[in-house]
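# step 3/5: fold
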Amino acid sequence: SYIVKSLMRFLWKSQYAPLRPCKWKFSRENKLADQKINTCIYYHTGQCPAPCAGKISYEAYRKNAERMADFLDGNFGDLRRALTALMQQCSNNLEYEQAAVYRNFLNALEHMKERVLVGRFKDETITTAMQNTDKLKRLAEVIGLKKLPAHIEAFDNSHLFGREAVGCMVCYINGEKNHEHYRRFKIKTKMPQKGGSDFAMMEESVYRRLRQLKRDPSQMPDLFLLDGGKSQIHAALNAFERADLFIPFIALAETHEGIYLPGAKESIKLPIGDPALNLLMEIRDEVHRFAVTYHRKLRDKATLSNEGHI
């Protein structure tokens, strides 16, 4: 806009960040030819600090460049304070027109700051989205999915010797957490007397989620991820058979980070740092955290309840 352009001219003319307007290429090692310096109108009219002619030191010119870099990066603190002081000074001297100019410059600063922040947000969002897409493409390649697993739901259980047994599910959409679709299940399956059964808990959690999906197919995920190994694979197969619904699924064993596919004799072992493994580990760790947190909440509640009856 006109105000922004005026602000840029002000920064140059006021010596806030005077940079040379020419396009000559030179350095401290490769000096600019005297002939070019002598034909420069900015040099002769004093509009340029003229680093080419040594009118300004290297250190001083570098400070100008750094000040302008801060300005272009959205760091307007020093400039805002300087403009505010000038506006106040003009207002005190009854120079209202000039005060209005500085006020407009301050408004322009705010406008530019919004543009800088939006630009950064867009850049970061685009970069993250591209990285997530690469991870999902790699995952589809590794486990043989024809469709990109944009919607992933992961399952884990938590208990203490079978008590306060819970199952939890987290949801990732396009490689990002989707808290709205997180689910928690109080396990209803009767546990063995000597402890819990991760197999039975996983089967119940997956089965109950499948029943929800049958009622609302619009939430149908592209992939289930189970925290565990072969036993969790069998538990999920039982749940799919009971629910009469099948969704592609895999399991990730925490002991060696092996990826188990249904029917496969051996797990897939990816090198540390592989994009697909990084994504699976992140999702597995998130569902583990969610399950443990829910279990502790129920356990603490049960402890308080028991203490109240002492």
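# step 4/5: annotate
The mean pLDDT is 83.
# step 5/5: archive (pending)
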